[in-house]
Design a protein that fits this description.
The complex is a heterodimer of chains A (108) and B (119). With 108 residues, chain A is mainly β. Chain A is 0% helix and 49% strand. In chain A, a hairpin with a 3-residue loop joins strand 5 and strand 6. Helices cover 0% and strands 52% of the residues of chain B. Chain B is built from no helices and eleven strands. The chains are: A mainly beta (108), B mainly beta (119). Chains A and B meet through strand 5 and strand 10 of A and strand 5, strand 9 and strand 10 of B.
């Protein structure tokens, strides 16, 4: 199974700042089948990015994804107050699907 | 708009079988375009994929849970279900159903249901 490692575990930033979240895979992710989700307390995760760099429906363009192979990045260009949450990466290219451990973006 | 809703007991005794159902509305499981998955999240922890099913009934499970998991589908009711046997306190989690699977992201999720394993 592909192990996904997210870093950092916690990111402390102020509104308006740029956030860069990383997701490393233990082996190459097939066809860049890599997604990013946002989760707020008490709610289900929400799909932000799929296929490594495509924004899901209704997702603001301040969210962008990049990467291929084993290294992927989620960038939030300017943090809005509603962006403070936990973010997970997930690969869906192999039959055994896996999630990363998550990055918490908190208000500094 | 596709909607998913989990239902089932919120409390299960140790060693018993956890059973949940996901009802899909706004879209047909039988369309064949998607997989349908179960995912769980222990309190304060990350997400763990449990398994997925196709409308035909073909399944794939997380290897770490495979010996205890059964996912089934009832296309006539537009539902799919999860059974997890021999549960322990470690199976206490919020259980989500979602649309997605192999080569497809999880684009629609249920609201989740907390299942507690306790005597």
């Amino acid at each position: 199974e592909i192990v996904l490692t997210q870093s950092p575990a916690t990111l402390s930033l102020s509104p308006g700042e740029r956030a860069t979240l990383s997701c490393g895979a233990s082996q190459s992710v097939s066809s860049s089948y890599l997604a990013w989700y946002q989760q707020k307390p008490g709610l289900a995760p929400r799909l932000l990015i799929y296929d490594a760099s495509s924004r899901a429906t209704g997702i603001p363009d301040r969210f962008s994804g990049s990467g291929s192979g084993t290294d992927f990045t989620l960038t939030i260009s300017r943090l809005e107050p509603e962006d403070f949450a936990v973010y997970y990466c997930q690969q869906y290219g192999s039959s055994s699907l896996t999630f990363g451990g998550g990055t918490k973006v908190e208000i500094k | 708009q596709v909607q998913l809703q989990e239902s089932g007991p919120g409390l299960v005794k140790p060693s018993q079988t956890l059973s949940l159902t996901c009802t899909v509305s706004g879209g047909s499981i039988s369309s064949g375009d998607y997989y349908w998955s179960w995912i769980r999240q222990p309190p304060g922890k990350g997400l763990e994929w449990i398994g997925y099913i196709y409308y035909s009934g073909s399944t794939y499970y997380n290897p770490s849970l495979k010996s205890r998991v059964t996912i089934s589908v009832d296309t006539s009711k537009n539902q799919f279900s999860l059974k997890l046997s021999s549960v322990t306190a470690a199976d206490t989690a919020v259980y989500y159903c979602a649309r997605g699977g192999l080569q497809l992201p999880f684009d629609y999720w249920g609201q989740g249901t907390l299942v507690t394993v306790s005597s």
